[in-house]
Design brief:
This protein has about 950 residues and is an alpha+beta fold. It has 28 helices and 36 strands. Strands 10, 11, 12, 13, 14, 15 and 16 form a 7-stranded mixed β-sheet that branches. Strands 25, 26, 27, 28, 29 and 30 form a 6-stranded mixed β-sheet that branches. A 4-stranded parallel β-sheet has the order 2-1-23-24, covered by helices on one side. Strand 13 and strand 14 form a beta hairpin. Helix 21 packs across helix 22, helix 21 packs across helix 24 and helix 25 packs antiparallel against helix 26.
Length: about 950
């Protein structure tokens, strides 16, 4: 009976689907285990062989845990809102929902072919209204919450209203916007409803504010920092500029300290933790206020507030630098400097914050013409603008101390001698003629008035005390983490459950959710610059009948002022990360219409035990999801502080790109071995027109390929009659034509071969190149495994005889190794052990049921289709998936014999296998009687015989 993987895999995939084999229950006496893959976006390209890597690893763990007696939740769904579908809609006019639905069907087909044990009964799609209903609901909860600094916790906004009504805000310690006015209880109660709403917006955890955003004109939307790479959009590579817009924002900065502290409680890689620490960017120092000196037009002076981690250097301030987008720039710039400042601000707006942060070599800036006053010496300090200062970090202004900061030092020397750049002040008893002195130890302060003779710690403590005493500043902890912009000017996203009355946002009552995304004729922004939802004709809120109505009703004037009942709805949609910031909780109770997940389900499943996905989400999804989880816990909706207990970042499977080489001077194409003496340009070649094993180009197929029509008349310069392409390891990508489709591998070799090969390539966390040529070895292994159970002619070949000790030893070595490897996520070495075991059993001619039944179980997590078939053929009913995993019996691993190396004067001459129970005298007797020893000694008597039991035998002399 031969191994026909096509029939076997189709049979068991159908069985699993029909019997809901992997459906989890929310209530079980078994211990729970929740294993989850990062939410996939269903792109039109479908899966390539790099995508399933993490899914295979998580599936091995999920299957192993079922064998170990756990109630396993291993769900899957789709992060189905996103820009690609919308861009395709703009180009073709096809509704994003249709594109997304078709892409999901393709993804599902591919995933099913690989044999994943997903609980598809819990599938969710973020673009389905029954899902985004609850994303809208969470947004409303955030809007109706504020954050208490004292308790480090979010509370219901109605509690804050009661505090304002009885105490005002003069004694509260809450997270809020800067510059909130102080008021008493009577003051609050005297405010109009409109003013009260405006004040509350400054405390809410989601709020409207005019902020500097990353605007991508080509995509027509705002992008988050993590959606920008090298100054252009990650999606499409379009230019990004900085622009002020009124946007919804999430007050994630309120959770900065908890996000930092929570990293100490979770089992994530140190590199991911460090990425989040750096993104959050905690720093301790002081806030200092510098009064601005009046300019010639006698405007009232104001202040520039700065945050510094080195308040001890305040007497070294030589100039100040504002971010070009700082709100004061247009106010303080003198007429003489206006043209230069305006030009610089415009140029800076074309660079992203990431680009500015990364560019440490370029020095640029402009003097504003304005001066601030030093809070102690009262000296005038020139105020510059420079793009190395960011408006969103700290206060968007720095006090520049060139003697103690390398960037300030370079800036001061670059503009040395120009208007507005004084000589550098040195406040250290150290030489700064060649570079800044940046150390925090090994110095005493000089030229520093009250700080003279002090070190860093003493100076810092004294200056903060003095600043607070004099009212010029205070000690402060700052975070680089900024509030997350939550608006996108696009169509294909979650609609906000928000309408506007007199310009102020109002939440739609939760009982009227979901607010369904409306139909539009065009997916581009409107002609007057509004988001695509501005094209909707049925997008207004009837606050009496609580439903969406025609926009035409908005223009009907109210008979009596204040009686208007139809209001405009929010035109922005939520960002791509909204739906993925809570989806793991929806999987716990995916079909609950009453709540996003029941308390019982949330309590039972708790946190995700194992989360697998790419490291590229370190400062995006992984941060936002932790923020939402902590918020939902504060408000009593989530049972745990952290969403993901253990995180593993799988490495990337790299493609093996192919190249032809075009002459720079002609249409000649040179084979790889001929390019050393030619000037050539490499061109990516579709893998479909090469032999992946020999690297030979199919010239005729190349000429006929639509991508290479320009080369149908090219001259091919061959090596030994063949054109050999160049190969290079690169990221697998459609644009590089190096994508390998998993469907092809499943068709040619089988899904179990694909699963085993991807694990065999190397450690899960490392990047590794794909090489289709190497897959044949794994395919051959599965055939060899099959032959342990079956004879090609006679069929099932199983004996009930007692196995030998060598057979037991091989099996239990494998049980032990595979168990340890899965628990340590070292999947590649398990595959090696399977191969060793099968080779050993084949050599031992093992067809014994007591060996082969447990072998089928232990290979089941890796190659489930063949394992199911073997289990069935062995006479068992049902699936192998919950059969108890074999336990290693150490007695079979105890060595009873040792193959000793026998040496003469330190040189090994032969080996001898002896029982480990023998005494030294017995070993000596056997060795001396051996014919090979007698031959080596040739009648001589050794002077000394060294025997170390279990290790060596050495005869000397």
């Amino acid at each position: 009976m031969k191994y026909f993987y096509e029939k076997i895999e189709a049979k068991w995939q159908e069985y699993w689907a029909k019997n809901q084999t992997f459906a989890a229950t929310n209530y079980s006496d078994k211990p729970k285990y929740y294993v989850l893959d990062m939410f996939p976006y269903p792109s039109g390209a479908g899966l390539h062989v790099g995508h399933p890597l993490g899914y295979i690893a998580s599936d091995i763990v999920a299957r192993f845990k079922r064998h170990k007696g756990f109630n396993v939740l291993h769900p899957q769904g789709y992060d189905s809102f996103g820009l690609p579908a919308e861009q395709y809609a703009i180009q073709t006019g096809q509704h994003p929902e249709k594109t997304t639905r078709e892409n999901i069907a393709r993804y599902r087909e591919q995933l099913d072919k690989i044999g994943f044990s997903f609980d598809w009964s819990r599938e969710v799609r973020t673009s389905n209204a029954d899902y985004y209903k609850w994303t809208q609901w969470i947004f409303i909860q955030l809007f109706n919450s504020y954050y208490c600094k004292v308790d480090q916790k979010a509370y219901d906004i109605y509690e804050l209203i009661r505090i304002f009504e009885t105490e005002g805000n003069q004694m509260v310690n809450l997270v809020c916007d800067d510059g909130v006015e102080k008021f008493s209880a009577s003051g609050w109660n005297s405010f109009s409803k409109e003013k009260q709403q405006q004040i509350l917006l400054k405390y809410r955890l989601t709020y409207l504010a005019e902020t500097e955003v990353n605007w991508c004109p080509a995509l027509g939307t705002v992008l988050a920092n993590d959606e920008i790479v090298n100054g252009v959009s990650e999606r499409g590579g379009h230019p990004v500029i900085r622009k002020k817009m009124t946007q919804w924002s999430m007050r994630i900065s309120a959770y900065a300290e908890r996000l930092l502290q929570g990293l100490e409680t979770i089992d994530w890689s140190e590199s991911i933790k460090e990425s989040q620490r750096n993104w959050i960017g905690k720093s301790v120092g002081a806030s200092v206020s510098f009064n601005l000196l009046p300019t010639t037009d006698n405007r009232q002076p104001t202040t520039i507030d700065v945050f510094t981690t080195r308040p001890d250097t305040i007497f070294g301030v030589t100039f100040m630098t504002l971010a070009p987008e700082h709100e004061l720039v247009s106010v303080i710039t003198t007429p003489e400097q206006k043209a230069a400042v305006d030009a610089y601000v415009e140029a800076t707006a074309k660079r992203s914050e990431r680009e500015r942060m990364a560019d440490v070599k370029t020095i640029s800036g402009v003097f504003t013409g304005a001066y601030a006053e030093h809070p102690f010496t009262k000296e005038p300090i020139p105020v510059w603008i420079g793009d190395y200062v960011l408006a969103g970090y700290g206060t968007g202004a720095v006090m520049a101390v060139p003697c103690g900061d390398e960037r300030d030092y370079a800036f001061a020397n670059h503009f040395k001698g120009q208007q507005g750049m004084p000589a550098i002040k040195n406040i250290f008893n150290q030489d700064i003629s060649k570079e800044a002195f940046t150390a925090k130890d090994g110095f005493k302060l000089v030229n520093s008035d009250i700080l003279n003779g002090l070190d860093y710690k003493q100076g810092t403590e004294k200056i903060i005390y003095t600043l607070e005493k004099n009212g010029h500043g205070n000690g402060k902890t700052n975070y680089r983490l900024r509030d997350a912009v939550f608006s996108r000017q696009r169509y294909w996203g979650e609609p906000f459950p928000v309408y506007y009355v007199n310009g102020l946002p109002q939440m739609i009552d939760s009982k009227h959710l979901p607010i369904i995304l409306p139909e539009v004729e065009k997916y581009l922004p409107t002609e007057d610059g509004q988001p695509p939802l501005g094209n909707a004709t049925h997008w207004a809120w009837d606050s009496v009948n609580n439903k969406v109505v025609s926009n035409s009703l908005l223009v009907i004037p109210s008979a009596v002022e204040g009686t208007q009942t139809i209001f405009p709805l929010e035109l922005n949609t939520m960002p791509g990360w909204a739906g993925s910031s809570w989806y793991w909780m929806r999987y716990m109770d995916a079909h609950n219409d009453a709540v996003f997940a029941s308390k019982d389900a949330l309590k039972y499943w708790g946190s995700v035990d194992l989360y697998i996905g790419g490291s590229e989400h370190a400062t995006g999804h992984l941060l936002y999801s932790r923020f939402w989880n902590k918020f939902l816990k504060d408000r009593g909706y989530a049972p745990t502080e952290e969403p993901f207990k253990k995180l593993i970042n799988q490495g990337m499977i790299l493609g093996m790109s192919a190249f032809v080489y075009r002459s720079e001077d002609s249409k000649k194409l040179y084979s790889k071995g001929l390019i050393a003496r030619e000037k050539v340009h490499p061109i990516h070649v579709d893998l479909a027109v090469i032999n992946d094993i020999t690297n030979e180009l199919d010239i005729e197929a190349f000429k006929k390929h639509p991508l290479y029509s320009d080369y149908k008349d090219a001259e091919f310069q061959l090596e030994n009659g063949k054109y050999i392409v160049g190969r290079e390891v690169e990221k697998m990508s459609k644009s590089k034509y190096n994508v390998v489709n998993p469907d092809d591998i499943c068709s040619d070799y089988g899904a179990d071969t694909l699963r085993l090969y991807e694990m065999f390539l190397g450690p899960l966390e490392q990047a590794k190149p794909w090489n289709t040529a190497g897959i044949t070895g794994v395919s051959g292994f599965l055939k060899k495994l099959w032959r342990l159970y079956f004879d090609d002619a006679a069929g099932l070949n199983i004996t009930e005889e007692e196995p030998t000790s060598e057979m037991y030893k091989s099996l239990h070595k494998t049980i032990k190794k595979v168990t340890e490897d899965i628990e340590n996520f070292s999947f590649n070495t398990s595959v090696s052990q399977f191969m060793i075991c099968v080779n050993e059993l084949a050599t031992l001619k093992c067809h014994h049921r007591k060996i082969l039944e447990p072998l089928a179980i232990i290979i089941s997590p890796y190659a489930p289709h063949i394992a199911e078939e073997l289990w069935s053929q062995l006479g068992h009913e049902g699936s192998i998936s919950t059969v108890a995993f074999p336990i290693c019996d150490e007695k079979y691993l105890v060595e009873s014999e040792k193959e000793y190396p026998v040496s003469f004067n330190g040189k090994m001459r032969f080996t001898i296998k002896l029982s480990l129970d023998l005494s030294v005298s017995q070993i000596q007797e056997i060795v001396l009687a051996d014919e090979r020893t007698i031959k080596q000694l040739d009648g001589r008597t050794p002077n000394k015989i060294i025997i170390v039991p279990g290790k060596v035998i050495n005869l000397v002399g």
